[in-house]
Amino acid sequence: xxxxxxxxxxxxxxxxxxxxxxxxxxxxxxxxxxxxxxxxxxxxxxxxxxxxxxxxxxxxxxxxxxxxxxxxxxxxxxxxxxxxxxxxxxxxxxxxxxxxxxxxxxxxxxxxxxxxxxxxxxxxxxxxxxxxxxxxxxxxxxxxxxxxxxxxxxxxxxxxxxxxxxxxxxxxxxxxxxxxxxxxxxxxxxxxxxx
Length: 195
Prior knowledge:
globular, 7 helices, Rossmann fold, NadD/NMNAT, 15% strand, Rossmann-like_a/b/a_fold
């Protein structure tokens, strides 16, 4: 059985993430999927987390409650305070990945920055690389980064966690953009307001 690894900040998890997970499970038959929320971001990428680790995990649990074959790994969260490097995550998860080469699922934007990842060639040697296409991106056929598209068109292409955080800061609704349980959690805990 193939294991699919899908990492990200999930700050917050949104409808696009949910769609990608369901499509990965449907298209990559006989798979299990591990969600890996980012720990301390790599300092080489200008990324900051808004919600706490506990809140991001709780929202993932709500978004995927009752979805079979999906689990959440806190490996990167337990490695703080040092930056999360995926090559270390891969090594840490090795015993739980089964015998088949795991698939690593990335957004197409991450695919373009993949050569900047710490020891990216070591990662490529250990995974099958898949990506979620983005509109306006036309992936070059770079031979050093062999990757396959999960599907052709992403119906949630313009949706991002940044957009959701911005709407919440402005007091706007995020109905339909995040799962209802996640919207309830955000409201109950006052996340992303006034940041």
